[in-house]
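Re: that backbone. Tokens:
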């Protein structure tokens, strides 16, 4: 009976050691769980030694900007669409403006030189669209 009690106590001791070992995390897992600093924090604040209050201000600004962006995401989705619409229509507006300037200057030229045509505006539009003025000036 003494043998069985001794072997039972050895089993209990070995089980207790196994429990302690299973509860401990290996050092490699601890390293994986710890978060690494972002590269820019490592560079500027650890290596170069910038003050910590600057880091706190930057992180506070980052938190506020993320909050602002998440609250106003609808506006930030509409803005690129508006910019694309403006960029798409700009050449159209520029061509229309140039055409209007051409017509205006041609009408001024016809009025200043006393060319009598039946319709100065029609003559100017025809000329600005690549037509020939000699047909209208005769």
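Recovered sequence:
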């Amino acid at each position: 009976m003494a043998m069985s009690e001794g072997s039972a106590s050895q089993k209990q001791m070995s089980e207790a050691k196994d429990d302690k070992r299973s509860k401990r995390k290996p050092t490699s897992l601890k390293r994986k769980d710890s978060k690494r600093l972002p590269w820019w924090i490592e560079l500027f604040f650890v290596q170069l030694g910038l003050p910590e209050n600057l880091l706190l201000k930057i992180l506070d600004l980052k938190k506020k900007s993320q909050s602002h962006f998440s609250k106003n995401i609808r506006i930030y989705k509409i803005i690129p669409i508006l910019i694309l619409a403006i960029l798409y229509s700009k050449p159209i507006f520029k061509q229309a403006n140039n055409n209007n300037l051409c017509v205006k200057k041609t009408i001024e030229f016809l009025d200043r030189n006393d060319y009598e045509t039946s319709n100065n505006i029609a003559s100017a539009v025809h000329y600005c669209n690549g037509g020939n003025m000699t047909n209208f000036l005769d």
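The CA atoms of residues 79 and 85 lie 10 Å apart. The radius of gyration is 41 Å.
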